[in-house]
């Protein structure tokens, strides 16, 4: 079943389809027209840093610790996660079909669903705030007529690790390793839990997009993704390294769990059940799992 953050794609899915979202040509073209003209990336020189956490806030079961010194080679990283518009350009050019489309459904937070879909979409047994929604995919993140055109500069979601790798190959990049991701997320700071330092909300001001209120039934304000350049960047000029969406990496969770590693937390993280909105936090999902709070950013080998 996976963690509280990320239920997994069932291996016995029967509701499969090969319908490509490119059938919605007009929506796709409108969205792709809003894509960036070029990739926005930052080159980092690499070096040694202390990875992981031994803090009481860390989840031992997630293998966040022990703290260890690691060395990272030079690399480049996207200043933001890939947007819906950017992913649309990829699909429009290649006709790529995501895993969510192949399976015919994806997992959506119940609080984002229309009343109609909320009534008919089955809940995940151990995490009932997740609903298995027929027709949900990256272009229709809530599974109905609300398309990602309205969310052009928000992070693409409902993409699996396999989908993220396909996009990265097309764009001439790759997924980051989780070591690279953590090096970048820390922004040059040493052993700080957040990209900006030690305090979650300095001066009481939010620095990332996480769940506010009583999870999951009583949010305060809106719930969902925000544009990829929301909030101030970290010391390396990188936006939303924690909160907003989980980010796929190329790494495996453990030697005994070959699932893909996700980093950074999301808009559904809340201290009452999932404080994985920290620079050392990690979780996992199978390579074909797609969720409404999971995206990715590009990496590139340099030097």
Report on the architecture of this protein.
Strand 10 and strand 11 (257-263) form a beta hairpin. This protein has helices at residues 25-32, 84-94, 99-103, 115-120, 161-171, 178-186; strands spanning 41-44, 47-51, 68-72, 75-78, 105-109, 130-134, 174-175, 213-214, 218-219, 246-254, 257-263, 282-285, 294-295, 298-301. The relative contact order is 0.22. Helix 1 packs across helix 2 (84-94). With 303 residues, it is an alpha+beta fold. The model is unreliable at 11-19 (pLDDT under 50). Strands 1-4-14-7 form a four-stranded antiparallel beta sheet. Strands 12-11-10-13 form a four-stranded mixed beta sheet. The chain has a two-stranded antiparallel ribbon with strand order 2-3.
C-alpha termini separation: 40 Å
Question: Could you give the order of the helices and strands?
Answer: HEEEEHHEHEHEHEEEEEEE
Helix content: 10-25%
Uncertain runs with pLDDT below 50, 5 residues or more?
11-19
Number of strands: 14
What is the residue-averaged pLDDT? 92
Number of helices: 6
Biggest sheet record: 4 strands, antiparallel
Principal-axis shape equals globular
Radius of gyration: 18 Å
> Order of strands in the sheet with the most strands?
1-4-14-7
| Approximate strand percentage | 15-25%
């Amino acid at each position: 079943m996976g963690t509280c953050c990320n239920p997994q794609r069932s291996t016995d899915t029967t509701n499969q389809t090969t319908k490509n979202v490119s059938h919605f040509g007009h929506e796709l073209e409108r969205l792709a027209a809003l894509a960036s003209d070029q990739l926005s990336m930052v080159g980092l020189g690499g070096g040694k840093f202390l990875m992981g956490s031994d803090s009481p806030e860390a989840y031992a079961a997630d293998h966040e610790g022990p703290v260890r010194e690691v060395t990272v080679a030079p690399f480049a990283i996207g200043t933001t996660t890939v947007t819906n518009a950017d992913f649309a350009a990829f699909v429009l050019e290649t006709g790529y079909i995501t895993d969510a489309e192949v399976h015919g459904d994806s997992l959506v937070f119940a609080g984002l669903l229309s009343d109609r879909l909320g009534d008919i979409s089955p809940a995940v047994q151990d995490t009932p705030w997740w609903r298995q929604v027929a027709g949900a995919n990256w272009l229709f993140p809530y599974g109905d007529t609300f398309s990602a055109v309205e969310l052009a500069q928000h992070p693409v979601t409902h993409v699996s690790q396999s989908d993220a790798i396909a996009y990265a190959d097309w764009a001439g990049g790759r997924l980051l390793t989780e070591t690279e991701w953590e090096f970048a997320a820390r922004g040059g700071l040493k052993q700080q839990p957040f990209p900006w330092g030690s305090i979650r909300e300095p001066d009481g001001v939010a620095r990332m997009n996480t769940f506010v209120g009583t999870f999951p039934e009583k949010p305060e304000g809106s719930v969902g993704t925000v544009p990829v350049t929301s909030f101030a960047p970290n010391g390396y000029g990188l936006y939303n390294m924690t909160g907003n969406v989980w980010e796929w990496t190329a790494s495996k969770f453990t030697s005994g769990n070959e699932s893909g590693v996700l980093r950074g937390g999301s808009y559904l993280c809340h201290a009452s059940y999932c404080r994985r909105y920290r620079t050392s936090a990690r979780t996992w999902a199978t390579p074909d799992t797609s969720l409404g709070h999971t995206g990715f950013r590009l990496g590139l080998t340099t030097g």
